[in-house]
């Protein structure tokens, strides 16, 4: 009998930006990379993004129109078109409404509250059309990101929950920066959101006498909450970092977890990057010396390989630690350290950097501009990368710097603490340098601790560079954690099991050894010793399933005792817990793969609701 194909988890990933189409910060990088990693991990993923006018024409020309309909928004009926573009194997669905999105920049307009309320409502409305226009895609998990999509979980529960199609959809909300929450006048409750007549919704959205908070609504309504690093997940539960939402996050702490972001390890690869003067690898870093010399020459610095070059690529704001930088820069520059800063921001910081550039010619370089190409050359050519943030949800720059062999100097906060292992002078371990307090002198001391190692013990410094370049910052690990979280929300859909490729090792062994191996493997292949895999269950039912699991585990252990060697048996710790015994047995018998039991048939998905045939709509978003 032919087994039915395993049901895949269907994830709708909603974001206000996604690289390479539109990007203003780290959110765009996440939405451009994480969906590809999720797809590689076994999920079916679509990404929903506004169709901004700023998207490059080459991408617009490749878009395919799937459907269009009207979205109810308060007293309005707004046009919504769905345009599809497959990029690197992932379907990106662009929400088209020129009245809201045909503007010169994604954010910063007086009606942003209405624009992104429409986007959130359009996301939920779109899901019911996808089975008919996108190869039967039926959403299992809706993953929303930041305040721009925060109203989607609220709309889903209040307006769509009664429909059978939407009843099984679970929601995830990710906080990328809690400082931006989407706060607006309470008048939007009725005029735009249409929720004023629902007391529970109005109460959970209200954040003041005459204000509503979109992110607060998402935190109250979503099924799971994530943020971009474990340390930041703990920080935002405090009054210092919670920006007024710490009480809700403490209350919902059981569903809050931090998952570190990754970077595009293919795009940021010094061995193949054509944007830098010379390519290099961890084993041969001669190209990095070339990059440093070229960068010093380009920035007007003294071309000297015996002077450490420290760079910053950042927004010039207090959050990025510019108060500490301007305080300590005089001491750092007079100590013989070359410094180069690239970025734009507050005028006071820009003028301060220009002052130091004039005071220390050949040692200080300030580039007050936005230049992605130059930033790439700075990552590759520098020795040190300074990132003394007041707070940092995750941060990508420190990971990119390590990828290019540039050691980060960071403050121990948020994702910086999670991704940079501080140097241990006794063991030689670490991938950079760190300091704890938001203090300019402490930062300067850390800079000189790094530069003294550069000057006095180049071998130890180079060992740190080896460690940094060997660190794994790919999206693979993060995607596995997200997949486990999705599975907890939808345990009825089994996690994809990667196929283990069995290597033909018997060819290199004597014939006698082959026969012995086959003989040893026979007891494990007996049907009586094969544990029957059960479908995953929710956490609340774990206790009920303990008894049958124990019996199966004991049978497995008894049959396998004749198959394992004395050394493997000795390696397994003695335990009275049968569940632990099963886990250890799997560890010592990695090559014995029992024949899997037949996968239970997946539950039939609810039928796609019949949608109304709408009149031909206009792309200008005229109200019906």
Count of alpha/pi helices: 24
Largest sheet: 9 strands, mixed
Shape: globular
Spatially, the strands of the biggest sheet line up as 3-4-5-2-1-6-7-11-12
Computed over alpha carbons, the radius of gyration is: 28 Å
Distance between the termini: 54 Å
Q: What's the total count of β strands?
A: 18
Structural class: alpha/beta
> Which ranges are low-confidence, i.e. pLDDT below 50, for 5 or more consecutive residues?
499-620
Question: What does the model show?
Answer:
By secondary structure, this protein is an alpha/beta fold. 38% of the residues lie in helices and 15% in strands. It is built from 24 helices and 18 strands. A nine-stranded mixed beta sheet has the order 3-4-5-2-1-6-7-11-12. α6 (151-160) packs across α9 and α18 (440-456) crosses α19. The protein is globular. It starts with 9 loop residues before the first strand and ends in a 36-residue tail after the last helix. The model is unreliable at 499-620 (pLDDT under 50).
Outline:
This protein is of the alpha/beta class and 624 residues long. The chain contains 24 helices and 18 strands.
Key words describing this protein structure:
624 residues; alpha/beta; 24 helices; 38% helix
Topology:
Layout lengths: L9 E5 L11 H15 L3 E7 L6 H4 L3 E10 L2 E12 L2 E7 L1 H4 L10 H16 L2 H4 L7 E5 L5 H10 L9 E6 L7 E3 L2 H4 L7 H7 E3 L2 E3 H8 L2 E4 L2 H6 L10 H6 L4 E3 L27 H14 L9 E5 L8 H13 L3 E5 L4 H13 L4 E4 L4 H10 L2 E4 L9 H7 L3 E5 L2 H6 L13 E3 L4 H17 L1 H13 L4 H15 L21 H15 L20 H15 L5 H6 L6 H11 L36
Parallel strand pairs: 1-2, 1-6, 2-5, 6-7, 7-11, 11-12, 13-14, 13-16, 14-15, 16-17, 17-18
Antiparallel strand pairs: 3-4, 4-5, 8-10, 9-10
Helix pairs in contact: 1-20, 4-6, 6-9, 12-15, 13-14, 13-18, 18-19, 22-24
